[in-house]
Amino acid sequence: MGVPMTAKLFLSDNAAPCHPRLWEAMRAVDQADSPYDGDRLSQAMDEAFSAAFGRECAALWVATGTAANCLALATMVQPHGGVVCHREAHIEMDEGGAPGFYLHGAKLLLAEGDNAKLTVDSIRAVVDPIRDDVHQVQPHAISITQASEYGCAYRPHEIAAIADCARAKGLRLHMDGARFANAAAFLDVPAGEAAGSVDALSFGVVKNGGMNAEAILFFDPALADVARYRRKRAGHLQSKGRYMAAQLLAMLEGDLWLENARAANAAAAEIAASCGDRLMRPVEANELFVRCNAAERDALRERGFAFYDWGGDAARFVTAWNSRQDDAMDLARAISGL
Amino acid sequence: MGVPMTAKLFLSDNAAPCHPRLWEAMRAVDQADSPYDGDRLSQAMDEAFSAAFGRECAALWVATGTAANCLALATMVQPHGGVVCHREAHIEMDEGGAPGFYLHGAKLLLAEGDNAKLTVDSIRAVVDPIRDDVHQVQPHAISITQASEYGCAYRPHEIAAIADCARAKGLRLHMDGARFANAAAFLDVPAGEAAGSVDALSFGVVKNGGMNAEAILFFDPALADVARYRRKRAGHLQSKGRYMAAQLLAMLEGDLWLENARAANAAAAEIAASCGDRLMRPVEANELFVRCNAAERDALRERGFAFYDWGGDAARFVTAWNSRQDDAMDLARAISGL
Amino acid sequence: MGVPMTAKLFLSDNAAPCHPRLWEAMRAVDQADSPYDGDRLSQAMDEAFSAAFGRECAALWVATGTAANCLALATMVQPHGGVVCHREAHIEMDEGGAPGFYLHGAKLLLAEGDNAKLTVDSIRAVVDPIRDDVHQVQPHAISITQASEYGCAYRPHEIAAIADCARAKGLRLHMDGARFANAAAFLDVPAGEAAGSVDALSFGVVKNGGMNAEAILFFDPALADVARYRRKRAGHLQSKGRYMAAQLLAMLEGDLWLENARAANAAAAEIAASCGDRLMRPVEANELFVRCNAAERDALRERGFAFYDWGGDAARFVTAWNSRQDDAMDLARAISGL
Amino acid sequence: MGVPMTAKLFLSDNAAPCHPRLWEAMRAVDQADSPYDGDRLSQAMDEAFSAAFGRECAALWVATGTAANCLALATMVQPHGGVVCHREAHIEMDEGGAPGFYLHGAKLLLAEGDNAKLTVDSIRAVVDPIRDDVHQVQPHAISITQASEYGCAYRPHEIAAIADCARAKGLRLHMDGARFANAAAFLDVPAGEAAGSVDALSFGVVKNGGMNAEAILFFDPALADVARYRRKRAGHLQSKGRYMAAQLLAMLEGDLWLENARAANAAAAEIAASCGDRLMRPVEANELFVRCNAAERDALRERGFAFYDWGGDAARFVTAWNSRQDDAMDLARAISGL
């Protein structure tokens, strides 16, 4: 068990180390303070995130992206309702059934879409045929992922169209932003535009240099009021929450979150440039899906690269805030030399 | 908001700073490693805790005591069952309904007992009248708290009697050990004796100098197998779990957990010695429940002591691993001078 | 198994036969019609119950009182909330944990009160100490039982006071009316006054001569909209619902529900008149709680009376719509002759 | 609202009247008896169904097929698990999310298969790719429908293959038998062979001439023990259960269930014989899926036939135990004359 420390790591951004400025921020709160979210930093989060997004929001910390997504959705979806999401969304594929738990049995309604992105058409293909009767689960919300599971970014106009669709149908809109920073960095627009008018955003930090803190941003205060109770009820109200608040505020400070994401994106772009036809998806964040067969993957691994197979003749490479320029260039060369 | 930093803090051990040796341990794992619990330290936990308890166990980290308690109970109790616990147990009073969430609506069956400790008699007073029919919720488990909500320790023979009772009735036995270290230090017996033959133990660290890690120890591997799925499903499987594992292993290393608890207990004992008749409960851990009226509490606060009122003419003082000798002596003098 | 058919039955009203006029009404719908609640009679229920209660309501059929209570509460209480009810309420004591299931783990908050009736004071004794923070389960609703578990009726002014209290605290109000008919008959006021301004009423029919139908009346249409989805989701939307609608409408027709309740109440009153000091509770419906020791109970059973022991030196006798005058007089004589 | 009484009804078997012999049986239990399932008939069900199936089973009544399916599955599937079922299964499409409710958020894992029937291959296509790790919902059971949603029957060897597959993978096997009678009649094999070695069967009666009773048969007594608690907890333990037991036993008596199903199947076969190429599915029970365009459907409706559109150029016709020979012949002629 464990990853060989000598490897050139492109397995996932979810295991990278914690950024030094977050360590400093955590150290700075290492004295007794009010427990739970009563400390000064936890109390400062609403203002800091509202400023960053140019829009009033309530910001709650939690330890994981799964908790962030599911707590956000639990405020929007009644137990007898459903959530429209992409067939390959994280909440459907990788959260061990957490939405079923947090939403008390509400259902995920699976939609299609290239590159794991929903469109108004793909949403309507799911929602429109649902009869408004009690025999079928009615949608209560839509969840989109920025950047998507395949590392692709929703453009502001795409989000706006989906938000309009949601409003027209009386649905709430959630954004899973586990890699929101990478999308925002790619789009090169303000945070508020990369989020659009969603009702809640899971603002990811762990994959972007954090240790163990994510933020849930609620742009409707009524949802935040429910979420505070649900967070405690889910065992996610840490008594020393200030160590999480410290991470989150340090990320916002001087736009460290964007700086980290840009570094990861740049490494990915460098590799992408050498992949040519092998690229299976546009590279718009820090993930590369690369066509290569078993022999080729073996060859790459022999040269010290660590990454995941991705079904059939494919490999996934993920860069992180700390990906070394050298390693990225090595990988680029190795792929083009296959 | 926030606690005045100049106060002499006896509010709670749940907001104390993180112990330096835990910081070191966390720093030592600050490079990429396998995510979730695949890293070297997470994988070492079973062995380390088995050694500490002299009994084979599976050890899982989670971030909070509420998650630890509720995940443990969720492996023991079916949704249509119940858990016998004390009327003032943390799971009943202070977890925001988390047992109802994690146990899918199973019921807490409330029993009496001095100093918030259950006895075989108080358990039987709840369980025996329950008819074995489908109209009444049947007990599936018992949960006891070591040390209790009033800072009192179960003696090994008391636990043994309750465990016998549980076995005789086909019930599982869980121990909430948010302050297990304080109880073990007070009892001055090996960890395994302070736990007795429970099926699972929530081994508390956050109140004893941890940052954000607790351990759930399962002495029956079948329960741990279920818990792993439930932990993920509850959003408690952190991707950088190694920072939690580091805290937990550092606590075991050189019995730091006992050292910290002894320090907190000693401070409490020092204060207790000056309380005389004012003591409302035996002081067997790091909590003092002290009779004093509003004027007396005001007087203490004016002298810089921070603590909670505890209903009527009572105050609660809690010491921590880092309580300063000076502050404890000051408080002792202040109380005896009332 | 089974009750000796020769016994004089005072066990419970929940096992009495079905009233002939309900049989007729069921027969009358014994041809194909729209399934679920699309048939003519199901569609007529709102109007019929609104007329009976002098107040606009939506009426849904379900098969059991447990389903009625829990579906009603599920529309009022979020999963992280609580319901104030009497410590001896049916939802707490006799529904096998159904509230935990239907309310997704919400909590019953137990209050005191003579004769199993809540009062404003007993409600406030539970609700007022609950801090408005996330560590404690917040009340979302109050549930009262008309007539109470001890067969006692809330007077209209008592309900009004509780309803005012509920409104002042932002809580919904539910009434379990498993024996609502008996209470209304006793109070001799219009149905609407016996219900007061509750948000929902479980209108009991099974204990009053029905076969297998109860009504949930929602006086707020928004609650009914949720309930329709929850009813289907709970497997309580029968495809041949017309047989239930027929029972319910037949009960309203010519006030059969009151006629049946008056008959049961009269039998109870007859027995009560002979009980003297033995009566442990006021007899305001169709239940008698009678002090009598084991020898006395044996003597009664030898004379052919069937009834339940009720803990200690007590017996419970329940009359029903079809209780025979002879049997009631026999029992009255037998008790006075003890 | 309501169906025109003059129509020739092929809408659904779920709204047909109740068979006269069931009325008689219900009348015969119309005197006070032990409540819930303590009466003589409820107690006789295990033996009667064991005899009918040639295999020991425990038989529980409930009012609806949704409750039968979901209670059965709730005994087999932990909240963190999943159920493999067909993409068009009733539990997925038509039960308003009831499986999410009863199974506490467990997930339906959707498989393919012609005519809404699963095969070992289609099951393995879903199950085999699921990694045995906590990030993905693990299957705990398989649910098949006899006859399928498209009225097609599993042959005994097909069930045996699926049962072998289930056992090999450690999964439980459930059969939704809403139209089990129609399948058994079509297969012309003993009940036990039409069910195969499933762990539980939802034995449908309502669509086959019942009023409001279905049976859940558990071939493993441990599952039945859990189901009894869950049934009460779901509000499905009727106090006058004898009226349901009477229906179920009357159905078994003299194989009325098969007689009714044969009548419905015969009517369907008569119509099918005239459909030629229009038949979209084999007719192996009492449902016909017939290709016909909007104009043709209008023409049929003008001639007095009531039926459902089935998406695109299709119509569904369902016969019932009481379908009149005349009406079936009329419909056959009308279709062949299109």
What does this structure look like?
Four copies of one chain form a homotetramer. The two termini of chain A are 29 Å apart. Chain A contains 14 helices and twelve strands. Chain A folds into two domains: 8-16 and 257-336, Aspartate Aminotransferase, domain 1 (Alpha-Beta Complex); 20-256, Type I PLP-dependent aspartate aminotransferase-like (Major domain) (Aspartate Aminotransferase, domain 2). In chain A, helix 2 runs parallel beside helix 11 (242-252), helix 8 (180-187) crosses helix 12 and helix 12 runs parallel beside helix 14 (325-336). Chain A has 338 residues and is of the alpha/beta class. Chain A has helices spanning 20-28, 40-53, 65-74, 90-93, 98-102, 120-127, 156-169, 180-187, 191-195, 221-233, 242-252, 256-272, 294-302, 325-336; strands spanning 8-9, 58-62, 81-86, 107-111, 138-145, 172-177, 200-203, 214-218, 287-291, 305-306, 308-309, 314-318. The model of chain A has no long low-confidence stretch (mean pLDDT 96). Chains in contact: A-B, A-C, A-D, B-C, B-D, C-D. At the A-B interface, helix 3, helix 5 and helix 10 of A face helix 3, helix 5 and helix 10 of B.
Look at the structure and give the mean pLDDT of chain A. 96
- Report the major sheet of chain A: 7 strands, mixed
Structural class of chain A: alpha/beta
Query: What is the CATH topology of the largest domain in chain A?
Result: Aspartate Aminotransferase, domain 2
CATH architecture of the largest domain in chain A: 3-Layer(aba) Sandwich
Number of strands of chain A: 12
Helical content of chain A, roughly? 40-55%
- Radius of gyration of chain A (CA) equals 20 Å
- The count of domains of chain A is 2
N-to-C SSE series of chain A? EHHEHEHHEHEHEHHEEHHHEHEEEH
* Biggest sheet strand line-up of chain A: 2-8-7-6-5-3-4
Shape of chain A: globular
The number of distinct helices of chain A, counting runs of at least 4 residues, comes to 14
- Say what oligomer this is: homotetramer
Q: Into which percentage range does the β-strand content of chain A fall? A: 15-25%
The CATH class label of the largest domain in chain A is Alpha Beta
Give the termini distance of chain A in whole angstroms.
Answer: 29 Å
Largest interface: A-B, 57 and 57 residues
Low-confidence stretches of chain A: none
CATH superfamily of the largest domain in chain A: Type I PLP-dependent aspartate aminotransferase-like (Major domain)
